[in-house]
Write a structure and sequence with these properties.
Residues 133-304 form the N-acetyltransferase domain. InterPro entries: Acyl_CoA_acyltransferase, GNAT_dom. It is a single chain. It is built from 14 helices and eight strands. It is α+β, with helices and mostly antiparallel strands and 313 residues long. Strands 1-2-3-4-5-6-8-7 form an eight-stranded mixed beta sheet, sandwiched between helices. The longest helix is centred in the first third of the chain and has 18 residues, at 29-46.
């Protein structure tokens, strides 16, 4: 023990602890709590890993932030006490930290690299587990299934992706299919939006999305798309509840909003069921087969969602 520690007052120790956590978690206490809860609830319970994994994660992160000159190899030796499975979970924990999603990012953020990184939090594609539904990051193996879903005529109609029946039913060109494939590759690493696959029993049923983020107004748009062959089983409601819980807790948005066409009353009921509030109608603002339809506007506020969760406890 050094002389500094011998003469530290209680206030000095408390300040040192605050300084440590400010350095380790520059986004504040909220980030600490979120990461800890995620580890406690997801990793420790689901994977039953050694709780010391989190300690080793902080050890490596602190070494980089302190400008420690240890090589990656030397730091990795510190992890040899863990099993291969624990090391894999260590990497997953690292991905959860919105301030450093890889060891190279820790290096960039610590100033040891000239390359700067600007993180929004959308880079992290979480796995959210419900009773029946699992939301997860898209994988290349999901692309064919999603192309199959978005080409279902009913999906194109309900999402407003086409304005005529002929367009709904036509065969897609190779160029269009290539664009779809590239799109579902790009969203896997997108930093301006969050797209997750909706899965049940390992099968992809659709997607759930946050996009068009307005940081100044602290709001973001929401949408969900599902294979209509799996409708009316409650999967959509469960997916939305999982997703909204994560969105409000992780990003603390003030407002999440959406639009829905008047010819989709089933979607309106589903949105209202999870807590979205009807705000108004833009009359005859969409056309399909030369017939005019209204667009309805819904939103849910952070206060709405938190109040709903309290009331349901």
């Amino acid at each position: 023990m050094g002389f500094k520690n011998l003469f530290q007052t209680k206030a000095d120790k408390e300040q040192e602890a605050r300084n440590y956590y400010t350095k380790m978690f520059p986004y504040g206490e909220k980030q600490q709590v979120l990461l800890k809860e995620t580890i406690d609830k997801t990793f420790l319970s689901r994977y039953k890993i050694n709780p010391n994994v989190f300690y080793y994660y902080l050890l490596v992160k602190e070494a980089y932030l302190d400008g420690d000159e240890k090589s990656d190899l030397e730091l990795n030796k510190e992890l040899l006490v863990m099993s291969d499975e624990d090391i894999q979970k260590f990497k997953e924990i690292l991905m959860l930290d919105v301030n450093a999603k890889s060891l190279s990012d820790i290096e960039k953020l610590s100033g040891k690299s000239e390359e700067k990184v600007k993180l929004t939090g959308f880079e992290i594609k979480p796995t959210l587990v419900g009773d029946r539904v699992i939301l997860r990051k898209f994988e290349d193996s999901d692309i064919d299934r999603m192309i199959e879903i978005i080409q279902i005529p009913e999906v194109g109609f309900l999402t407003g992706s086409a304005i005529t029946t002929e367009e709904l039913n036509r065969e897609r060109t190779p160029e269009e299919l290539a664009r779809y494939r590239q799109w579902y590759k790009d969203i896997q690493t997108a930093s301006d939006r969050l797209d997750l696959a909706i899965t049940v029993d390992g099968e992809v049923l659709g997607e759930i999305v946050l996009n068009e983020w307005d940081p100044e107004m602290d709001l973001i748009s929401f949408r969900i798309l599902m294979d209509p062959n799996h409708a009316s089983h409650g999967y959509g409601s469960e997916a939305m509840t999982l997703f909204l819980t994560y969105a409000f807790k992780q990003f603390d948005f003030n407002r999440i909003e959406l639009e829905v066409y008047s010819f989709n009353p089933r979607a309106r009921r589903a949105y209202e069921k999870v807590g979205f509030v009807y705000e108004g109608t833009k009359r005859e603002a969409f056309q399909f087969d030369k017939k005019k339809y209204d667009i309805h506007f819904y939103s849910i506020l952070n206060s709405d969602w938190n109040g709903k969760q309290i009331n349901e406890r």
